[in-house]
Write a structure and sequence with these properties.
The complex is a heterodimer of chains A (113) and B (112). In chain A, 0% of the residues lie in helices and 58% in strands. With 113 residues, chain A is an all-beta fold. The relative contact order of chain A is 0.33. Chain B is built from no helices and eleven strands. In chain B, the strands form two sheets. In chain B, strands 2, 4, 5, 9, 10 and 11 form a six-stranded mixed beta sheet that branches. In chain B, strands 1-3-8-7-6 form a five-stranded antiparallel beta sheet, with no helix packed on it. Classes of the chains: A mainly beta (113), B mainly beta (112).
Chain lengths: 113, 112
C-alpha cells in the first residue's frame, strides 16, 4: 500500500549534535509537511513544501531546516540539537487532487540529552 | 496567524453516552476543518472533515457542525464505545491554504 515512511522511528542524540529526520512517500502527493507533537500542545507546523522548489516556514521553524530532495522525499534537520527539541515528529503529505486531507507518517520519537 | 483553540483537554464519558469536543478558529478565511483521531502510539488519522459551505456532516456515529459566524466547530460522537478512546485533534486551514493549524488535542476516555 502507498504510504508515508519516516526514519528513524526512535533516536536519542546529544545536545549540540546535528541530526536529520527523513520522510519518504509512495503516495505520489506533491505537498509535504513536518510537525512536532508535544503533550498538551498538539501538533505544531515546522516547515512545509508544496512542490520540489517550494519551502515555507511554519509556526516554529527556529532551530530547524528542511530539504526537499525530490517530490517523494522531505528531510528535517536539527543543526545543533537542544533538549527542548525532544518531541514526537510527524511528516505528513497531501495532494492537490485529493483536497486538503493529510496522510501522516508513523512518527519519529526524538530525545535530546 | 491562525489560532485554533480546542476544549476540553480531557473528557471522560460512560460507554453509550455522547461526547462533544469544541474548537474555535481566528482566521475568517479558513474554509476546511478536519478532525483527526490518534490512538496510543499511532499516527493521527482523519475521521471526518467539513468545508465552509456546509453546516453539518455526519458519518455513522460521528458528526461535525460548523458555525462560520461564530468561528467555531464541534465534533459529536454518539453511543460511545471503548474503542473511541483516543486523542482527538481539530484543525483549520489559514488563508484557505493547504497547510493545517491544529488545536491542542482532547484526550477522550470511554469508561466501560
Amino acid at each position: 500500500d502507498a504510504d508515508v515512511t519516516q526514519t528513524p522511528r526512535n533516536r536519542i542524540t546529544k545536545t549540540g549534535k546535528r541530526i536529520m529526520l527523513e520522510c519518504s512517500q509512495t503516495k505520489g502527493h506533491d505537498r509535504m509537511y513536518w510537525y512536532r507533537q508535544d503533550p498538551g500542545l498538539g501538533l505544531r507546523l515546522i516547515y512545509y513544501s508544496f512542490d520540489v522548489k517550494d519551502i515555507n516556514k511554519g509556526e516554529i521553524s527556529d532551530g530547524y531546516s528542511v530539504s526537499r530532495q525530490a517530490q517523494a522525499k522531505f528531510s528535517l534537520s536539527l543543526e545543533s540539537a537542544i533538549p527542548n527539541q525532544t518531541a514526537l515528529y510527524f511528516c505528513a503529505t497531501s495532494d492537490r487532487t485529493g483536497g486538503y486531507g493529510y496522510t501522516f507518517g508513523s512518527g519519529t520519537r526524538l530525545t535530546v540529552v | 496567524g491562525e489560532n485554533v483553540e480546542q476544549h476540553p483537554s480531557t473528557l471522560s464519558v460512560q460507554e453509550g453516552d455522547s461526547a462533544v469536543i469544541k474548537c474555535t478558529y481566528s482566521d475568517s478565511a479558513s474554509n476546511y476543518f478536519p478532525w483527526y483521531k490518534q490512538e496510543l502510539g499511532k499516527r493521527p488519522q482523519l475521521i471526518i472533515d467539513i468545508r465552509s459551505n456546509v453546516g453539518e456532516k455526519k458519518d455513522q456515529r460521528i458528526a461535525v457542525t460548523l458555525n462560520k459566524t461564530a468561528k467555531h466547530f464541534s465534533l459529536h460522537i454518539t453511543e460511545t464505545q471503548p474503542e473511541d478512546s483516543a486523542v482527538y485533534f481539530c484543525a483549520a486551514n489559514p488563508d484557505s491554504s493547504y497547510k493545517l493549524i491544529f488545536g491542542s488535542g482532547t484526550r477522550l476516555l470511554v469508561r466501560p
